[in-house]
Design goal:
single chain, 7-stranded parallel β-sheet, 34% helix, disordered C terminus
Amino acid sequence: MAQRPPSAAVLVLHGGRETGTEPPPPGLLNLPGTRMRPFVRAVGRAARASGGNVLVTSVRYGHRGWNGDRADPFHDAVAALDALREEAGDDLPVVLLGHSMGARAALRAAGHPLVRGVVGLAPWCPPGDPVTQLADRDIVLVHSDRDRMTSPQATQSLTVRARRAGARTCMVTVRGGDHAMIRRASAWHRLTAGLVTGLLGSGSLPGPVGEALALPPTAEATEGTLDLDLDLGLDLGPDPGRFGAGTRA
């Protein structure tokens, strides 16, 4: 029996390094890729529970780093989107799910015609990165207040710049988390699955997130910034024994 085509897709982009022209190591040796596997499983379970035929797949990188103006992961993301478009057509809704460097690549690639939204986890958001490609997209960025690898302040600034450029944006702060998303891991997984399925329309977004996405372009940064525990009621607490060092971008 022929497999029915997907009704939507999620492309997952893992983290990496600021520079590195060598390819990522294979399999479990690719630690940033391995870290995203629980997110792939969580999103897949949520998508199946919604009854939709959602494809969840990871983008393969040719190089470990961003590499300055080369922006290698961005081009890998666009190539993966083009391949999806050729296979499934122009009407396939896609959400990009990226961590750190992968979130930067997702944001840069969000202007692709298939992309409906981006969920960025601990995103790397340099102040000079463009935002015009985010117009008419839903952008939800999730950042720990204790991240020492990428800046939550830069993430908040990008949500404001993108909103003024015509995007619908929201930032969620995870208190007590870390860059690798190991502290409070289950809260990260649950929140991410809800955001992705909500942006695809196969689930319901948390109410405050929907309200933040509907803010006008002139809204202040604080209006579009939510606290996971105080605003969303998704506090699952820390995961005992799951503490560890952060990964690179």
